[in-house]
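Deliverable D4.2, example record:
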Amino acid sequence: MTQQLFEQAAYLLKADKPEAADRVIGEAVQHDANPAGLLYHWGNMLAHTGHFEQAISAYDRALAIVPNSPELLLNRGNALFELRRYEEALANYQSALIRAPANPLLWNNRGNALVELQRNDEAVESFSKALAIDSRHTGARIGRSALLADAGHNEDALRDLESVTEESAELHYRRGMLLLHLKRGDDAINAFSRAIALEPGDAQSHIGHAVALSAMTRHDEALRAVDTALRLAPGNPVAWNSRANILLRLKRYEDALNSTDRILQLDSASAAAWHNRGAALFGMKQFKEALAAYEKALAMDARSARTWNNSAVTLMSLGRNDAALKNFTRALEINSRDPEIWCARAKALANAGRFAEAAADCDRALALDCENVAAQRLAIHARLRACDWSRRIADETAVCDGLAAGTRLIDPLDCLAMLDSAAQNLAAAQLWTAEEFPPVPPPVSAATRVTHQRIRIGYMSTDFREHVMGSLMAAVFEHHDKTGFETIGLSLAAADRSTTQARIAAALGRIVDLHETSDAAAADLVRDMQLDILVDLNGHTGDARTGILARRPAPLQVNFLGYPGTMGAPYIDYLIADPVIIPQSQHGFFSEQIIRLPDCYQPNDRRRKPAEAIPSRASAGLPEDGFVFCSFNNNFKITPGTFDIWMRLLRGVAGSVLWLLEDNRQAAANLRREAEQRGISGQRLVFAQRVPQPAHLARHALADLFLDTRPYNAHTTATDAVWMGLPVVTCPGNSFQSRVAASILTAAGVAELIAPSLEDYEALALGLARDPHRLSRIGMRLEENRDTCAVFDIVRFTRNLEHAYTTICNGRACRALRGHS
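Output generated by the structure prediction step:
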């Protein structure tokens, strides 16, 4: 009869009539010889069907009959655990353990309760007790593994899981997550794959698989994996967040933004979603909106070092470097063990000209992660800019080894200053472009080339403003043949409302502002303009937007003037040069086809004028009578070898000084110290501050001889000197950037200032310093040639450039160009 009543109660329970079932069980208890056992089984059935409160009541009635039963206390504790009444559950487990200390399940479940109460050390001890009794207890292994992982003991956590003999999707999922933390990406992928094979419908395993694939830069496969997870669980915010992360790595920022919006529809308080929304908006160049998103994320999770870091990077892009440094510091207060944050702060310090501090932050990053390539690269950059040569030999060796191994240990622009090798400059540019700006296929709907009556040229630059590039190109724009050419400016920087900018705008007729437009959107806008030629005036300099060019918005894309070398990009078709800077023998070291102008490739504006008042030597800190060597190049172009020559020149010319431009105080201090180490007083180095162009041109009258740098020559600084009649001594090398001054001097008609070797360079400079009459004659010839030489004939230059564009459009770029006078 008792069995029949139990089955009737079970039927009522399944029919969702727990009260009626309980009445039937009450009747059964009255007729049962072992009511405690009946109540125990009834409690288990109630717990199994999710009726935990009623289960506890059944266990209590049983315990009134059989006090302190370990089995009853264990199951009562389990029901309390399910109701999240963890303290009470723990009390039940501990009472049961007094009578059954050898029960591994009790120790395991006690550990679970302690985990929920965040008493992790005690929990580890409890799981270990369970394993001491039964070394194959799967639950205890998994529980202890999770705790060890939380404590950062990932290797120990993995060993726990590896010892589990019973296979399950959960087990392999947990293994995969640990392997991810241990940066064992291939093993993690295999673990998640095994979990999926055991349980294909488990969305969390597909998400883990996607994360592991993305960690191994297999982003397209990762996207497919996370989309599978979303088909299984379309409302899973973790899956949507993982999808956003993968799309960010693929630089598909608009798609990533859509994914974050889906998350926020599910959970508007998701700090992770707001963080990723900020990252997507940042990638779309919408920096103000990105900052607002990061601030939302921080309002929800102020302990996220990663979000503080990203908000700081965004502030840098908004030109708020001081605020960025504060946010970096906040990030490091939360997590000083993250090398990426140290590296990011180093960049902000470098932007502020605090290069020694930047290098120190890079060292901290490398102490945490000795293989952090970004930190190595930025440290080299900081030391270059500060003229810190304490590790110069090691830096050059590392860079050369890195280039040979295909590791991007140096930025292309820094490589120009360090290595006089066209082959290594090409390698540096190719590595940079492949990693930062790989080709992006244009949309299928992209229009084919349209023929126009006039050749339509788009000039793209960050420098349509008061800048060297703006000054060089303004006259070209003014002298373009408007009957044969239509010109459009594509501006990548905010307006500065300068005279130069107004002049450029008037000459071009149309400037389109792209500085707050994403690369993808900007490429679409440019594509709609149906350009014949897109001319990039940045190359690998400044805030270049190579990502626009990577989307091939124009049928012909040209690298010109802004960067003295190859871009190493498959989507740049031509580089405009001249016969001196790129001899025929070096064509193989450029990814572009070379189109050579007959004269110097650099345009120059004849409208620039020096200030009327020439400063006195005393006001510039120069001696009244001593010989003044000068070099107004950026300090990072100065190499130890060139500096050795300069110090020997100072030693060889009594009373002489070296007049340099001061980039930053650290560089000045380091150069003075280097002079002292070479036996020359640091006081014989005089540093000039940056001044407006008219004042800078006027002060050339105070110098006697301009000394060029190598491998990175004087470019605009050389034409400034030649324009003002100041002789420039140069020694061309084996690369584009090391032959520019030779090109300028050849076009200026003073090729005798070009030395074939460094020994000849030193002898020529010393000879000129000791022969004032010869030096004066060369200066006079420079002044006489100014109105007739090719380097300052802007009309001739523009006609030659237009002829180059016509040749490119006609597909005849390999032919030699004849000059136009």
